Amino acid sequence: MKKFGMTLGLFLFSFCVGYGIILHTSDWGPVTRDPAAIRQVYDFSSLTGTELTEAMKKRILAGATVVREHHSLGVELGHFAMAKITGEKTLACQEFATVVLRFEAEGIATSGERPVMEVEGACEFSSDMTKINPIFIPVDKIMAEKPSDGEIQYREGRPVTVRFKNVTEEWPTRWLLTTVRLSHQAEQKELLIDAEEVSHLLGRPMMMSFK
After folding, report:
1. CB atoms within 10 A of CB 60
2. Are strands 72-78 and 65-69 parallel, antiparallel or unpaired?
């Protein structure tokens, strides 16, 4: 009986340790919202004014990557810590609620105007806080729609709003990222990276192909 109790105790101890390791390393574990936990290299809380704005724009685009998930394409951006007006340290996605990505179609124009696609999603950071979670575009669902200007809202998974302008009879399949905007409408906050800055900071075209 004593041997059984020792065995059971050892099993429970091993289980708890193993579970703790899994929870610590798994994406299912709780995501910390403590700005102090972000890597120092991405901590801009000591910067203000123009220096802060330039650092934020560089970090956002330095972490920019096109990712694929099932039948969707997304853009992942860099994340960082910053300081509020009060001096309190915070995170970018705690200050900005939404991300808006603007694309222009390649090789297509209507009356001299390129088709435009705007994609709007929530600003949410990843488990390591160095990335903004990808803003996904449900490519297959869009391609199944009739090509037209207007707004389409997708609520499955991570909600996203897609707006089109100057669309022709067929959906464009190659899109160039031209601007990035982080905003918080309720608090009237906005960080805009315009087309010239995107081109300069990326140093290369960021293309997204629907095919």
Report:
1. 22
2. antiparallel
